[in-house]
Amino acid sequence: MTEPQTNLYRNPDFMRLWIAQGVSAFGGRFTRTALPIVAIGGLAATPGEVGALSALGFVPSVLVGLFLGGWIDRRPKRPLLIAMDLARALCVAAIPLAWAIGFLNIWWLYMAAVLSGAGTAVFQTADNAFLPSLIPKDALVDGNSKLETTESVAEIAGPGLAGVVIQFLGWPVAMAADALSYLWSAWWLGRISNSGAPEKAEPAPPSVFADIAAGLRLCWSHDVVRPLLAASTVQAFFGGFFMTLYMVFALKVLNLGEAAIGLIIGVGGIGALIGVAMVGPTRRALGYGGAMLCALALGQLASLLIPLSAAAGALQIPVLVAHQLIGDGALTVFFILAGSLRQSVLPQDMLGRAHSAFSVTGGVAITAGALISGWLANAIGTTPAVWIGVLGGLLAVTPLAASRVAGMAGSDKT
User: Fold this and answer.
1) Residues 58, 64: Cα–Cα separation, whole Å
2) Which end of the chain is flanked by fewer CB atoms within 10 Å, N or C?
3) Do residues 140 and 11 lie in contact, with contact meaning Cβ atoms separated by under 8 Å?
């Protein structure tokens, strides 16, 4: 892949997409931080129930991948993105409403997780296919890096501020702010001139499963994309452990407060921002494939710091901060390069189905990881379950290391 030559600041449609993403990314951290706190602190949820809540947030990505990937490919993307923003705003706003009328329980959170997860899955699939229609291929790494910069800034400020808001103003205020952020995103997306319509009409397949089969065949038959799919699936499975157990570990094992946890998680945004800045230098120094391999390896190794923090005494917070800085920074480099490579080497009219293939395998994996980790935490304790998750995550490096992707130079495109 070549260095980007296009100045995206002069691309009005990309800038509108970037602005739309900005506040929405920020608000999303409020709900992400609030949901497990509501479940654990407000509803006295068990680790198994928290695991189920985490899993249900990812089940929709599997269903969307199975049934809607090809449908999204054949539809204009911008109207879908706007519709999903509006749907998620309604879903998030319904949670504090249920609390206000005394109806909130764990089952309501489960339902909200499924519906908002479905909206996010459709949005992410359409967005992944929309970006290449707004900017040239040689600007994909730059475009993805800019979007990831916003995510990183949101990760820096969002969880920390969310923790403070939740502790002093209450979680309903935090979730109301997230609902407003989705409305902001929808308004800016509506100003984009490019509808993201497919270049040519494509007939519907004989069954919905034909679309996911086509996406899986495309990804698995491509010798560059196949190891990315395998590595992402392994990473997602053990990432399910992290998504389920991190908050339980921090609250119950380390006895940290909500505000402290939010601030620690926010440091991950600084790490991700550093990762964005390191994409170019790392790629030039190690080659495209070498940069992906080293970044994934370092990101997974950094997860060891989570269980090690329990024995760090007064240094437990600095150890957790180090994990956020190193892990988020390294994984940001990997995800930007891997996503841009996939967008570059696969046909544009198949990107929705390819993204769905990744969503299905990753969604199944992360759901299984979340459920298993919750069961393990109940059976053997939270800390041993966390150790299993971080050690198993190291296996994600294997598919890349064993493929030709690891040796790809910066100029390779296939």
Assistant:
1) 10
2) C
3) no
Residue-level pLDDT at 308:
93
Amino acid at 233: T
107-111, 199-203, 349-353, range with the lowest pLDDT: 199-203
Of 53-67, 80-94, 174-188, 314-328, the range with the lowest mean pLDDT is 53-67
Cα angle 337-152-335, degrees, rounded to a multiple of 5: 20
Residue 14 burial (C-beta neighbours within 10 Å; 0-12, 13-18, 19+):
buried
Asked if 231 and 396 touch (Cβ cutoff 8 Å), the reply is yes
> Sign of dihedral through CA atoms 323, 325, 331, 334?
negative
Structure tokens at 173: 């205020």
Q: What is the pLDDT of residue 56?
A: 76
**How far is 7 from 30, CA to CA, in rounded Å?**
32
Mean pLDDT of 253-260: 81
Nearest to 161 by CA among 293, 29, 66, 46: 29
How far apart (Å, rounded) are the C-alpha atoms in residues 127 and 140? 13
* Per-residue pLDDT at 359: 77
Task: Give the rounded percent of residues in the chain with a pLDDT score beyond 90.
Answer: 16
Q: How far is Cα 195 from Cα 159, in angstroms, rounded to an integer?
A: 33
Is the pLDDT higher at 388 or at 204? 388
CA torsion sign for 263, 266, 271, 273 is negative
Compute how many other C-beta atoms are within 10 angstroms of the C-beta atom of residue 53: 25
8-21 residue pLDDT tens = 888 888 888 888 87
